[in-house]
């Protein structure tokens, strides 16, 4: 019985190392989303930090600030969704079959 427990602990430690490595790799990734046919581009890292916002001059209309705001929101939400999807796909492989809802 004790041998099984030690074996299980070793497996868990191995899995934990793999999870930490995968999470570090995710944090280093870059994500990008555009809106308005490329008029607004938002870039973020895997930590969900926005690292760059690019706005094409042609889309800046002082009479229509709302459109620009909507484009920025759309691109930002898109890039954050991309990060969530990649995180769930990457980290989900570690929680399959463990029945631990809400872990990630």
Helix fraction by DSSP (H/I, runs of at least 4) = 55-70%
Low-confidence stretches: none
Largest sheet: 3 strands, antiparallel
Order of adjacent strands in the largest pleated sheet: 1-2-3
Order of helices and strands: HEEEH
First-residue to last-residue Cα separation = 31 Å
Number of helical runs?
2
Report the principal-axis shape: rod-shaped
Explain what the structure shows.
Helices cover 56% and strands 17% of the residues. A three-stranded antiparallel β-sheet has the order 1-2-3. The two termini are 31 Å apart. It has 104 residues and is α+β, with helices and mostly antiparallel strands. The mean pLDDT is 89. A hairpin with a 4-residue loop joins strand 2 and strand 3 (50-55). The longest helix is centred in the last third of the chain and has 31 residues, at 65-95.
Describe, in short, the structure shown.
The protein is α+β, with helices and mostly antiparallel strands. The chain has two helices and three strands, in the order αβββα.
What would the keywords be for this entry?
104 residues; alpha+beta
